[in-house]
Structures are given as C-alpha cells and as structure tokens.
Design goal:
- By secondary structure, the chain is mainly β.
- The chain has two domains: 125 residues, no CATH class; 150 residues, no CATH class.
- It is 0% helix and 54% strand.
- The chain has a 24-stranded mixed beta sheet that branches.
- A hairpin with a 3-residue loop joins strand 6 and strand 7.
- The protein starts with 34 loop residues before the first strand and ends in a 6-residue tail after the last strand.
Length: 312
C-alpha cells in the first residue's frame, strides 16, 4: 500500500519542508489504527470503504471532493499558517483546520474518495464542491458558493452569502441561501429551495413535492406535475414562471397583489370569482385537477407555460 504523509512546522521558515519519515505518525491500519496529529500539510493515499464517511471542516479556504472507482482515498490538504488536525481510517476521514494564534492564511482541501461514500463538507469563507460521489451529501458555506453534482439519498446544500448550484440529484434535496441564487437541475425526489435575496431555478425536475421560495428574486420551475403531488411557489418582488407538461392535471391557486396572470393553458374561472380587487386571486383547474399547485407573488407576474421539451 502506498501511503505518504508530509508534515511541516507552522512556526518557522522551514514550514514548507517535509519532516523525515521517522517523524510521521504511526499508521497500523490493518489493526484498525488511525493517523492523528497536527500538521500544516498532508498528502496521503490509503484503503477506504465505499460505505465510509468523509467529514471536512474548513475556515478560510476551498473544499473539493471528487469520486473515483478505486477502493481507496487520497487526502491532500495544506494550511499556510493554521494547523491541520486529521483522523484517517479505512472507514472515516475527519479533517479540520485550527487557527495558529488566530492566524489561518490560505488553506485548501482536496479529497478523492470511492463512489458511494457519505460526504459532510463545511467552509466558513471558501467554496465547497462535491462531484460524482453518488451518496448522501451535506455541503455548507458561510461566504462561498456550494456546487454539487451526482448525489443521492439526503442532499443538503446551504450558503449564507453565496450561490447554490447542483445537478443530477435524487432523494430528499434541500437548497438554502440568504443572499445568493439557487439553481437545481435534473432532480428526482422531494425538493425544497429557499433564498432571501436571489433567484430560484428548478429545471428538469421529477417530483411529487416541491417548495420554492424567495423574497427578492424570481422563481422558475420546469418539471412534472404529478397527479398526487403538492407544489408551492412563493416570491415577494419577482415573477413566478412555471413550465409544465401539456397534460398536467392540477388545481391551481394563484395570487398576486400588483402583478398579473399569464397562462398558455385555457383558464376557466368559477362563476362569481373576483379577480379585480387586491390581492388578485385566481382558482382554476387543469385536466382532472389531481395535484395541488400554489403560486403567490406580491409584486410579480405569474406565468404558466407549456413545457416544450425536457432540459435533462
């Protein structure tokens, strides 16, 4: 087995020089041992389970996790002035940065893992990227973007002041941002996307349960309408555009205060329904009316369009 661990002092000009092999921590993995220690640089490859867990915590740098078909993991990490604390076993990788007298400097984690592992990745002021793992993913950043592709089961994507972009997702999907855009494409399963200041774009969606909400932005939905599904779309100061299949069967409740309703489908309102007051409220049925669809915007238009083609 090839395994290397480069360690360096964080307090001198020799910080970038690797220690000798005799200074490396003991790694008896055959007996379930683990590598533990405080370093400023790690480069290690070792056997790792496809059902393992990766738990990464950053402070001021990016986190990048990619999947491969090998039954091993490679961990490459460095910190300019902080300290790395690592625990590396055949079933769990834990890696975090500790400040060195309040100083961190540039830091970066790059981890390659077998397909199927569970990934938990966090960064305070950096981007978080997870690609191709085909497992559960929790990716969070405070002031960076979150980008995830090819994840399943439970997928949690959060950023405070960054964008959330993800594709090829399946399972229970949650996307949240405070001041960023949320873009989810090619999603199968339950979807909830919420942001305060940004657009929400859900395209290529197959779901029975969708919630999309923004305060200052627009909402776009391009996906199916399951006859037994529930779909909710909310925007305060932006338009809501729904692109749905020609044969959609749903009961719609649409409300806007200063916007309008524009539908490519024929809309027949029940007798006596008032649509001239404020807010304007429309209730109508398409097809057999199986699904429940709610779309509400305070100062935006609501557009219901025919889904011309799949975006998958």
């Amino acid at each position: 087995m090839r395994s290397s661990l480069l360690l360096a002092s964080a307090v001198s000009a020799a910080a970038l020089l690797p220690w000798s092999s005799s200074a490396q921590p003991d790694r008896d993995r055959d007996r379930g041992g683990q590598a533990q220690g405080v370093e400023s640089r790690i480069d290690s490859t070792f056997t790792f389970s496809r059902t393992g867990v990766v738990d990464l915590t950053q402070i001021s740098g990016d986190v990048v996790v990619t999947a491969w078909e090998r039954g091993e993991a490679r961990v490459r990490a460095f910190t300019e002035r902080g300290r790395l604390r690592a625990s590396l076993t055949s079933s769990r990788i834990t890696l975090e940065v500790e400040s060195n007298r309040g100083r961190i400097g540039d830091t970066r984690f790059e981890v390659s893992v077998p397909v199927g592992v569970r990934v938990i990745a966090r960064s305070t002021s950096g981007d978080v990227t997870v690609r191709g793992t085909k497992g559960a993913v929790e990716a969070r950043s405070t002031s960076g973007d979150v980008v995830v592709t090819d994840a399943t089961d439970r997928v949690v994507l959060e950023s405070v002041s960054g964008d959330v972009r993800a594709s090829a997702l399946a399972g229970v999907v949650r996307g949240e941002s405070v001041s960023g855009t949320i873009e989810l494409h090619d999603v199968t399963g339950e979807v909830r996307a919420e942001t305060t200041s940004g657009d929400v774009s859900l395209t290529g969606v197959t779901s029975r349960n969708v919630v999309a909400t923004t305060v200052s932005g627009e909402v776009e939905y391009d996906g199916n309408i399951d006859a037994s599904g529930r779909y909710e779309f909310h925007a305060h100061s932006g338009d809501i555009r729904l692109e749905i299949p020609e044969g959609a069967s749903a009961q719609f409740t649409v409300e806007t205060f200063s916007g309008s309703l524009d539908s490519e489908f024929p809309v027949t309102l029940p007798p006596g329904q008032r649509t001239t007051g404020r807010p304007r409220r429309f209730e109508f049925t398409l097809g057999g009316g199986g699904a429940r669809v709610t779309a509400e915007s305070f100062s935006g238009d609501i557009i219901i369009a025919r889904r011309a083609r799949s975006r998958r």
